[in-house]
Amino acid sequence: MIMENELPQAYLDDAQYLANDFGQGQLSKSDYNKLDDTISELTDTQAIKFLELVRDGVVQTLEDHKKRCQNPTNCHQLKEGDKTINSLKKRINERKKYLPFISVPQAETPNHPPDHTTARQVLAMKFLLEYAKINVTNDKAAERFLHFLTGKSKENLYKLWRNPYNKDLFTAEVDDLRFIRKFFEELGATEVVKAINNEIDKP
Predict the structure, then answer these.
(1) Is the pLDDT of residue 38 over 50?
(2) Average pLDDT over residues 64-84
(3) Domain assignments of the chain as residue spans, ordered by start
(4) Are residues 85 and 55 in contact, defined by beta-carbon separation less than 8 angstroms?
(5) pLDDT at 49 exceeding the cut of 50
(6) 9 falls in which pLDDT band (50, 70, 90)?
(7) Cβ count near 68 (within 10 Å)
């Protein structure tokens, strides 16, 4: 059984024939009309495959000709062949416009740099929520919100949210506070910067 977007053998034969014909450099408008008529019954995907086969065949025909050409610099066939290839490329690109857009799903965990640790992300969110005067009483809700923003492990997010200054969880060292401070400085969030500085200055 032929798949919807596979080319039937008859079209494969036609593509080979047209590639050889188009590679000779003697083309007219009727030749392109014939090409368009040939692919008129195909789906966009099939038409693109057909045109690519013709294009690749023309390229091969010209490469074979160039090997034995006496004057490749001024060869009419090679010059016309380049025009043919460009014309085929335009037809291919035009057809591609009608292909359905396919959304590629993103990986669950964003590709953060190594120094964008989970601990630092949680710590930054802590200061941000405090600045917004949001009193989070539901730790699980905070965990889900942080997972939504970071894509990191929910278990680690929950532990770090509940104990952001617990050094046993490798978090909230002075270096971490200084690291997140620069982002708030760049944002112009002076009140958050003050709060971070106060935390750094604590004995």
Answers:
(1) yes
(2) 86
(3) 9-96, 118-201
(4) yes
(5) yes
(6) confident
(7) 7
Distance CA 60, CA 22 (A): 11
Please state, in angstroms and rounded to a whole number, the distance separating the CA atoms of residues 20 and 25.
10
Q: Kindly give the interhelix angle for 139-150 and 118-131, rounded to the nearest 10 degrees.
A: 120
Write out 92-156 in H/E/C secondary structure: HHHHHCCCCCCCCCCCCCCCCCCCCCHHHHHHHHHHHHHHCCCCCCCHHHHHHHHHHHHCCCHHH
Q: What spatial distance separates the first Cα and last Cα of the chain, rounded to whole Å?
A: 77
For residue 163 the two structure tokens come to 């104990």
Closest alpha carbon to 128 in 192, 194, 187 = 192
Token pair of 125 as six digits: 């969110």
CA distance 15 to 75: 24
pLDDT digits (tens, 9 = 90+) for 108-140: 445 667 788 888 888 888 888 888 888 888 878
Q: Pull the structure tokens for residue 83.
A: 């025009």
**Residue 23, Cα to own-chain centre: how many angstroms?**
35
* CA atoms of 12 and 29, how far apart (whole Å): 22
Residue 127's φ and ψ, nearest 5 degrees, are -65, -35
Give residues with Cβ within 8 angstroms of 74, minimum separation 6: none
